[in-house]
Amino acid sequence: MKVSVVCPGFVRTSIYQTAVTVNIPQDKASPSARLAAWMMEPRAAQVILNGVEKNQAVIVFPASIRWVWRAYRIAPALISRLLAPLLRKRIRELRSYRLTSDEAKKAAEGQS
Question: With 80 as the cut, is the pLDDT of residue 77 above it?
Fold first, then answer.
């Protein structure tokens, strides 16, 4: 039996538009506005199929994500330290979007 693990970066799908968010406006939870390097679904599917056909054990794409993955494999502590500030910034940003309980109730009523 052969197995391939797929580790995609950002692929342009409807996942962020259809995801249910809790206590954060949906448009604020999506990183779509900030990311220019989205891969389209057909291209992502082709990369995956090519990797499986070549019997690649790990399929990481796009190239920018593959470079980060390779660097992490070589120096996990260093890459973690470099990425930590970016992750903390995103968490602070998401927390700033939290809805008050009244706003959350109104948003829930609007979805019904």
Answer: yes
